[in-house]
Design goal:
alpha+beta, Ribosomal Protein S5, domain 2, Alpha-Beta Plaits, 2 domains, seven-stranded mixed sheet, four-stranded antiparallel sheet, globular
């Protein structure tokens, strides 16, 4: 059985809406082999919320690869061992999708080239903000252009990520419906300026700029009613030494960038801010995952990577 480990991801990162994603040291493992009929097993975090049939995102992705390489009649035995809380804004579906694609490609002899794998995972997920960092690791800035992905990968150094994960779900559909069709020009300009500052700060290590750079007016204010305590949790992170904080993906998870020394203070402070609003939450100190999706032994075939710019 081919086994692929794929990291969780945090998308949007404040002003970088639908363009910037970060791989985190929390992950899921997808095992895949040929079978006489579809078999899907799911174990671990949130197993009861993950499909156990051919509609599983990793299974659907593996079927897509099978069709591309002329194996349309194949069935799979798929096993997922999961650490990523589902429906919490940590890219669990994208991670499973990436795992299915990488595992199937390895199972069929690696017929799909690395650049095509990047295009495929982003096309299947609909946008690059989760899929690209799940595949490549690190921090990825990407955009879809005429069916292909243009992306830049960074490797931020000396930086920890703290996530506070509430014990409730926010559906992606509900989060998208909360966004207006039109936004004021001043808010768009606000985000454009901070998006540039965000990437500059992460590329150069000038992390003190993140307090301003992670501010957002295009999605967090419109989604805050879905996440009780969002502003309080962000403020608690900043008050306890975080460089900056934001909603992770469509939420409800909140992510903070911190120096190593302050991460042990930031994690419980964020959790306590949720709990002060009557919301049970967990919090973790995480590393940035630089490896991305990787095939584990016995194959030991690495997934594609982009060389970091810095």
């Amino acid at each position: 059985m081919i086994s692929v480990r794929v990291p969780a991801t945090s998308a949007n990162l404040g002003p970088g809406y639908d363009a910037v994603g970060l791989a985190l040291s929390l992950g899921t493992r997808i095992g895949l082999d040929r079978a006489s009929h579809p078999q899907v097993e799911v174990r671990g975090t949130g197993a009861d919320l993950i499909p156990r049939g051919p509609e599983h995102p990793a299974y659907r992705a593996a079927r897509f690869v099978a069709e591309l390489v002329g194996e349309s009649d194949v069935h799979f035995h798929l096993v997922q061992e999961n650490e990523i809380p589902p429906i919490r804004g940590l890219g669990g579906s994208a991670a499973a999708l990436v795992g299915g694609i990488i595992a199937a490609n390895d199972l069929f002899g690696g017929q799909i080239a690395a650049p095509d794998l990047l295009n495929i995972v982003c096309e299947l997920d609909g946008h690059p903000d989760n899929a690209a960092p799940a595949l490549l690791g690190g921090l990825v800035i990407g955009t879809m252009t005429s069916g292909s992905i243009s992306a830049v990968r960074l490797e931020p150094k000396n930086l920890k990520a703290v996530v506070a994960v509430p014990d409730f779900a926010v559906s992606t559909t509900a989060a998208r419906r909360a966004l207006p069709d039109l936004v004021p020009h001043r808010d768009a300009a606000f985000n454009v300026g901070r998006s540039g500052l965000l990437l500059g700060a992460l590329a150069t290590g000038e992390y003190d700029l993140l307090r301003v750079a992670m501010q957002d007016r295009l999605h967090q204010p419109y989604r805050s009613h879905l996440i009780p305590g969002l502003e309080d949790v962000i403020e608690a992170a900043l008050a306890n030494g975080a460089y900056g904080a934001c909603l992770s993906g469509s939420g409800p998870t909140v992510l903070a960038f911190t120096p190593e020394a302050h991460a042990p203070d930031v994690a419980p402070a964020m959790r306590a801010a949720f709990e002060a609003r009557g919301v049970t939450a967990a919090s973790w100190k995480l590393d940035i995952d630089l490896a991305g999706a990787r095939v584990e032994p016995p194959g030991e075939v690495a997934a594609p990577t982009l060389e970091p710019v810095f």
